[in-house]
Specification:
There is one protein chain. The chain contains 8 helices and 8 strands, in the order E-H-E-H-E-H-E-H-E-E-H-E-H-E-H-H. The protein is an alpha/beta fold. The protein has a single domain, classed as Aldolase class I (TIM Barrel, Alpha-Beta Barrel). Strands 1-2-3-4-5-6-7-8 form an 8-stranded parallel β-barrel, surrounded by 5 helices. Strand 7, helix 6 and strand 8 form a beta-alpha-beta unit. Helix 1 crosses helix 8 and helix 2 packs parallel to helix 3.
């Protein structure tokens, strides 16, 4: 079990009419990061927000901003998020490999691959690092841990525990073996996004995650501080 758990609060479930207040809520709660879900309507069904929102919230917080690029062509947008002030840029493995036949076409989701083109992905990882930012690689639930050749070159892996695109989905326990496998290979940060709730968080942490993304659980709570306190209590250090 990781020694310390960090929490990245996702603004996907926030009130966008009061975004500055919602960012302050994240800061006041004791969360460690702000998670921004970027969706283009092609990699996932919805269209959400882009680098303009990262640029808008950058002056509002000193917390790291974690930009999760759920976009079909991440290489075309990385520079925008670097300029906007994102501290972590997460790119999907599925954008760098041959998509499985059932999800190759427009409107076919979720996107999944069995292998990636490591050299193509490496170019974007280097671009992110050259700008002084952290690079994470994201794996959809149906995509295996196919990035072994890149684990020494990245800062973290984001494991999706729901099919991406929508908040408030049910956690998929079938990702737990992949988490355990990944933790055996990788000593860096492992972030998990999707269905992180009171009844699933311990399972996720026990499997090897050290960063939990919280969207509806955090923003739907009457006491966000209590949510963060509970999630952080799962740290090994707090169990001694």
């Amino acid at each position: 079990m990781p020694n310390k758990i960090q929490i990245s609060a996702s603004i996907l479930s926030s009130d966008f009419t009061h975004l500055a207040d919602e960012i302050k809520k994240i800061e006041d709660s004791g969360a460690d990061m702000v998670h921004v879900d970027v969706m283009d309507g092609h990699f996932v069904p919805p269209i959400t927000i882009g680098s303009v929102i990262v640029k808008a919230i950058r002056p509002l917080t000193k917390l790291p901003i974690d930009a999760h690029l759920m976009v079909l062509y991440p290489w075309s947008q990385i520079d925008d998020f670097i300029r906007a002030g994102a501290d972590i840029i997460s790119i999907h493995a599925e954008c760098y490999g041959e998509l499985r036949p059932p999800c190759k076409g427009p409107g076919q989701f979720p996107k999944e691959v069995d292998h990636v083109n490591s050299e193509l992905m490496r170019q974007d990882i280097k671009k992110i690092h050259a700008a002084g930012r952290k690079a994470y690689v994201v794996l959809n639930p149906g995509t295996p841990c196919c990035i072994g050749g890149l684990l020494n070159e990245i800062d973290g892996v984001l494991v999706m525990s729901v099919n991406p695109g929508f908040a408030n989905q049910k956690f998929m326990p079938e990702v737990l073996p992949k988490l355990r496998e990944l933790r055996k290979q990788f000593s860096g940060s492992i972030m998990v996004d999707g269905g992180v709730k009171e009844d699933t968080a311990l399972l996720i942490v026990d499997a090897g995650a050290d960063i939990l993304v919280s969207a509806s659980y955090f923003f739907g709570s009457k006491d966000p501080r209590a949510v963060i306190k509970y999630l952080k209590s799962l740290s090994k250090d707090n169990k001694k």
